[in-house]
Amino acid sequence: IPASVTSIGENAFAGCSNLKSINLPANLTSIAYEAFAWSGLTEVTLPDNLKTLGGYVFYSCKDLKTLNMGNGLTEWDASNIEMCSAIESIQWSDGLTKIDKEAFSKKSKLRSFTFGPNPKLEEIGERAFAESGLTSFVMPNSVKTIGESAFWWCWLLENITLSEQLTAIPSFALAYTKIKELSIPASVTATGYNSFSGQESVSPYTNTLTDVYIYATTPPVKCEDSYASYSRYISGSARDATLHVPYGTKDAYKAAAGWKDFKKIVEMVDVDGDRQATASDVIAITNVIAGKE
After folding, report:
1. How far apart are CA 243 and CA 238, in angstroms?
2. Rounded to whole angstroms, how far apart are CA atoms 151 and 125?
3. Residues 58 and 11 sit within 8 Å (Cβ to Cβ)
4. Is 114 within 8 Å of 94 (Cβ atoms)?
């Protein structure tokens, strides 16, 4: 497409089943409704100057595997890749602040979801990635909230890094994954019913979660969400894991609702909170014992 083009109209390339690739000009600012719907595109990179998409832009592009959004988008609608069953990799736009409810749920082939250098994402909606094929996920530190069941039944999800600004892990947000070790930042003050668990299969039952590292010195309380009435809110598979808590907080966690149900609670050597056992931690512990701190 020529460099002079700044917009692409409705249905411009709709139904072009033999269209496998396209180079979009840097000055492009808008793509209208169903512009590439039912086309044969396999990979798309949106330019950074692109601000708006008209909805259903790549609808039913059955061969689309890779989508790089660019960093200029100010809004995104899940309809743009609806029925794109082959999607494997998405790079999210740094300009977008929210991933909507069920935006990428049931994308069973989606393995990679990454971000640019300066993400502004603040919210991940309910069931946003539920039942998707993600294998790992690094949450930008700009994220403050995630919705219920955000990563529910992500059967292939083995690793997730949570935002250092995340305030809560609501019910079922990380339930039924293949996560083995989960690190919960100090910013988290509340968790929900079965908010995290590792379960590779139901029959026969297989628990994958072995270790939970939590950095809050005060045990998080129960989320006031849809499952707030459930009294025993940390799942059985989670309770089977070893809970690693900050130095000096074991008694608090052993007395706290939900957390006390963990069968094994141990204190971390990581006293200074840098998530590493280093000489500074040993010095800090020595000072506590000697009464210097």
Report:
1. 9
2. 10
3. no
4. no
Strands 211-214 and 190-191: unpaired
Element (H, E) at 237: helix 236-239
DSSP 265: E
Q: What is the C-alpha to C-alpha distance for residues 27 and 236, in angstroms, rounded to an integer?
A: 54
3-state secondary structure of 286: helix
Structure tokens at 103: 């935006």
- Give the pLDDT confidence of 248-263 residue by residue, as tens digits: 999 999 999 889 989 9
- The answer to whether the pTM exceeds 0.90 is no
CA 275 to chain centre: 20
Compute how many other C-beta atoms are within 10 angstroms of the C-beta atom of residue 65: 16
Among the ranges given (23-27, 156-160, 224-228, 235-239), the one the predictor scored with the smallest mean pLDDT:
235-239
Tell me: pLDDT of 92 over 70: yes
d(CA 7, CA 44): 16
Torsion on CA atoms 82, 83, 87, 91, rounded to nearest 10: -10
3-state helix, strand, coil in the chain (%, to 5): 10, 25, 70
Torsion angle defined by CA atoms of residues 114, 120, 126 and 131, in that order, rounded to the nearest 10 degrees:
0
Nearest CA to 253 out of 281, 228, 221, 286 is that of: 221
Contacts of range 164-167, beta carbons closer than 8 Å, 24 or more positions apart: 165/141, 166/139
Strand, coil or helix: 183: strand
